[in-house]
Design a protein that fits this description.
Shape: globular
Number of strands: 4
Structural class: mainly alpha
Distance between the termini: 28 Å
Strand order of the largest sheet: 1-2
Number of helices: 15
Helix content: 55-70%
C-alpha cells in the first residue's frame, strides 16, 4: 500500500513538471518586457525611453501575461497529459473540453441561484476565467480536473463499441463520461469551495503570521521532500495560488508570489513592500544544493551513478 501511494505521488510530481517548467520561461520574458517599460530604468538609461523599446516591452509582457492569468487551464492540460498512460495528445485535448464544460456548468448553476456578483469582482471570491464568471479557484481547479480527466482517460480510452456506436469509442467515450462528471463537480464545488478557500486562507495566514517558525515548517517540508521528487507538492500552491498570499498594488489584487515578483520589476516597488512574506518564502524554495553545486562532483562519481547523484542534488 505504501509503495502504491509513493508511486502515485511520484507520478503526480513528474507530471507537474510539464506545466511548472513552462512558467519560468514566461516569467523571465515578462520580466524582460517589463524592464523596457520600467520608469526608473528609463531615468538611468534615457535611450530606453522611446516608442520602439516601450512598445516592444509592452507587447512582450502583455502577450505572455495571459499565461500567468490562466494557470488553471494550463495545469489542467499539463497534468492530464503527464498522467495519461496512452494517447497523451488526445488526453490533453479532452482535458481542455472538460475544463470548458466545468466552467460553464458552474457559471450557469451560480446564475440559477443568483450567486453571480455584478460589477467589480475584486475581493468577492469570483473571477473571470476564459471569459466565464465563476468562483475563483485558481490553480487548484486545474490540478483537480487534470487528475480527474487523466483517471477517466486511463480507465476508458480503449473502450470500443460495435456497429453504429463504434464512432463513440475510445477518447470520444472518455469525453461522454466526463460531461456528467464535470457538471456534478461544478455543482458540488459551488457549495464546497468557499469553505475550502477559507481554510486555505487560514493556513496561509498561519504560516505568514508564525514568522520564523512558519518559515521553518515550510522550508523543512520542502527540503525533506526533495530526495523523493515530491517537493513540488509543497511550494507549488504557495507560488501559484492565494495560499502564498495576496497584495493590492495600484488598485489591482495580486495573488501568489510569482505575480508580485513580476510586478516589482515593472513598478520598481520593493518586493517586501508588495508582499512581505514572499521574499522569505522565495529564499526557502531556493535549494542551496541545487544543480550548480552538483557539477563539480559529477566527474568524480562513477558513470553509472551520475544520474542518481545529480537527481538527489537537484
Amino acid at each position: 500500500m505504501k509503495d502504491k501511494v509513493m508511486d502515485a505521488l511520484q507520478r503526480f510530481s513528474k507530471a507537474m513538471f510539464i506545466p511548472v517548467l513552462i512558467l519560468p520561461i514566461a516569467g523571465i520574458l515578462i520580466a524582460v518586457g517589463n524592464l523596457f517599460t520600467n520608469v526608473r530604468l528609463q531615468a538611468v538609461l534615457p535611450f530606453l525611453n522611446n516608442p520602439v523599446t516601450i512598445g516592444f516591452g509592452t507587447l512582450l509582457s502583455g502577450s505572455l501575461n495571459a499565461i500567468l492569468g490562466n494557470l488553471g487551464v494550463i495545469f489542467c492540460v499539463g497534468l492530464s497529459v503527464g498522467l495519461a498512460n496512452k494517447k497523451k495528445s488526445e488526453a490533453g485535448f479532452i482535458s481542455l473540453l472538460a475544463f470548458l464544460v466545468f466552467l460553464n456548468a458552474m457559471n450557469k448553476f451560480m446564475n440559477m441561484r443568483g450567486m453571480l456578483v455584478e460589477g467589480s469582482l475584486s475581493g468577492t471570491g469570483q473571477a473571470m476565467v476564459l471569459g466565464v464568471q465563476v468562483l475563483d479557484m485558481g490553480v487548484f481547479i486545474g490540478l483537480l480536473l487534470g487528475i480527474v480527466v487523466a483517471y477517466v482517460h486511463n480507465r476508458f480510452c480503449e473502450t470500443e463499441f460495435n456497429n453504429a456506436f463504434q464512432i463513440y469509442g475510445g477518447t470520444r467515450f472518455v469525453f461522454i463520461v466526463l460531461i456528467p462528471v464535470m457538471v456534478v463537480m461544478a455543482v458540488l464545488f459551488t457549495f464546497v469551495w468557499p469553505y475550502a478557500q477559507a481554510g486555505i486562507n487560514a493556513l496561509g495566514g498561519f504560516i505568514r503570521s508564525a514568522g520564523n517558525f512558519g518559515l521553518f515548517i515550510y522550508g523543512t517540508l520542502e527540503r525533506l521532500l526533495i530526495p523523493t521528487g515530491l517537493h513540488h507538492l509543497v511550494y507549488t500552491p504557495f507560488l501559484y495560488t492565494s495560499l502564498g498570499g495576496t497584495a493590492t498594488v495600484g488598485g489591482q489584487v495580486l495573488e501568489m508570489m510569482v505575480t508580485p515578483g513580476v510586478t516589482r520589476i515593472s513598478t520598481g516597488v520593493s518586493l517586501e513592500t508588495i508582499f512581505p512574506s514572499s521574499a522569505a518564502m522565495m529564499v526557502a524554495t531556493s535549494a542551496p544544493t541545487g544543480p550548480p553545486s552538483s557539477l563539480p562532483a559529477m566527474p568524480t562519481v562513477a558513470a553509472e551513478k551520475r544520474t542518481s547523484v545529480g537527481a538527489f542534488k537537484a
